[in-house]
DNA sequence: ACGCTAGGTGTACGTTGTACGCTTGTCAAG
DNA sequence: CTTGACAAGCGTACAACGTACACCTAGCGT
């Protein structure tokens, strides 16, 4: 009578089922909808049942990151460090784009799970294998930063949540709003105008994120390559061609 | 008898006092401790009183970002785009370091307040004034990303919350843990070892964050300069020396 | 002296993570 | 087949959160 299950009924829960459901829920309903209660409901189970399979929500999120990492392609062999890293990063990016919640969760994580450490380790290994000194590797890893995961701090775009929440903008008031913005923020307006072919949105939508990402990635990789070829090995050891640090005034 | 106020007693609340208290609380107790209730308590007031001065917590956080932006030095004039931008970014970074919560809050913000737009606008203006094309400016702004705010996705360091939460690590078990890690993640271990002069921490503490930041910043700025000097103006207009995008295999 | 309004109060609701103890399903050993 | 133990799932409960809503009140212009 309680009518609890929708289908298969008594399929024992386990860690994988919990993780898969969590990822699916986050994919479909957004990370903000991922509460222990909601997840439990999705699994036809009482909230506290989850705690038999994950220690707490933090650990759940950590585990979800591990799922993510497992989706990234293994390093491609034999084509030189530059293209190997490029491919790896773009693979990571593809994963990230499949899971809109990934960026936010990755940013919030503070614990380094084995899977994350493994990814980092293999990533560092690619530079070392390419002949980079330990020091240079260290620095370029920092320079890559979150780009290692295939994402960038996107400062312009929408929260990617429930779409189409532009409820009832008066069709012409928008133009006025835009004109006012162009007046107050002329420079933003110029680049936004230039980039907005597709949508007539107010600010900077309609630019090719993938192009922007690869543009910056290649800029960095080229920089790395130059340093490496110039024999840069360590901060103090050989300031032959360090980035010219024009110190202040 | 109720013993409510600690000192000045009936000093009328206002928006500035609320904001200042919020910033101070976040600075001292960490952003996680900044709840409306805790903030109200800090001000000797009932939680709901705050809502007469800020619309809700989101707006509070937005306003806190505005406080931050106001602390960043105005653009330095007359020294060329490169050093102007460099100085501005490093000024932003100094602000960020004063307010440990800033990174997390900035990352979470989705609304562009006027102050944020103003900062972005002035930032874009520096590139344009330096002779960058609108398109190139667009791309380099993306490439800068969050570095515009003086921060990077620091993937290695601690949450910066309450310090010294290493409770009672057996003095020698740590060495064993480290040895095990070096075995499983040899590459991480190599760069961590090389960077750890100061502390004997397990992973990558004790590297010079400021150096890492400037290293990457200068790498990018140099890349921008090179593109600019080579006459790069637009994606399709002149592929004279685009970043060599070795597409896939 | 009056009354208007901005500012502060009190209560209450819904939602969150999760501690603790009880019950029940499942399987191995007797 | 019975039994007993252990893992899995349940139910209740609590503290903390953001905030809606109605109320009271202090201080000011008239």
Automatic annotation (TrEMBL), chains A, B:
Chain residues forming the annotated DNA-binding region: 35-54
Entry's Gene Ontology molecular function annotations: DNA-binding transcription factor activity; transcription cis-regulatory region binding
Keywords: DNA-binding, Repressor, Transcription, Transcription regulation
Residues annotated as domain HTH tetR-type: 12-72
GO BP terms in the entry: negative regulation of DNA-templated transcription; response to antibiotic
Superkingdom of source: Bacteria
One Pfam family linked to the record: TetR_C_1
Signal peptide: none
InterPro entries: Homeodomain-like_sf, HTH-type_TetR-like_transc_reg, HTH_TetR, Repressor_TetR_C, Tet_transcr_reg_TetR, Tet_transcr_reg_TetR-rel_C_sf
Name used for this protein in its record: TetR family transcriptional regulator
């Amino acid at each position: 009578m309680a009518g609890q299950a929708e289908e298969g009924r008594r399929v024992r829960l386990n860690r994988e089922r919990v993780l898969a459901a969590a990822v699916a829920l986050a994919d479909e309903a957004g990370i903000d909808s991922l509460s222990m209660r909601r997840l439990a409901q999705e699994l036809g189970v009482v909230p506290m049942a989850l705690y038999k399979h994950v220690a707490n929500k933090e650990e759940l999120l950590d585990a979800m990151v591990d799922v993510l990492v497992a989706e990234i392609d293994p390093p491609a062999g034999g084509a030189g460090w530059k293209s190997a890293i490029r491919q790896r990063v773009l693979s990571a990016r593809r994963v990230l784009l499949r899971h809109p919640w990934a960026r936010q969760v990755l940013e919030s994580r503070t614990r380094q799970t084995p899977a994350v450490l493994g990814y980092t380790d293999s990533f560092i290994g690619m530079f070392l294998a390419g002949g980079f000194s330990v020091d240079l590797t260290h620095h370029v890893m920092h320079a890559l930063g979150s780009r290692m995961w295939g994402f960038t701090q996107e400062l312009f775009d929408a929260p990617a949540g429930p779409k189409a929440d532009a409820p009832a903008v008066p069709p012409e008031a928008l133009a006025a709003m835009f004109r006012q913005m162009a007046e107050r923020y002329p420079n933003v307006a110029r680049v936004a105008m230039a980039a907005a072919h597709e949508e007539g949105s107010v600010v900077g939508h309609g630019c090719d994120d993938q192009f922007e990402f690869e543009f910056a990635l290649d800029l960095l990789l080229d920089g790395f390559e130059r340093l490496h070829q110039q024999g840069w090995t360590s901060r103090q050891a050989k300031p032959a061609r360090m980035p010219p640090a024009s110190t202040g005034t």
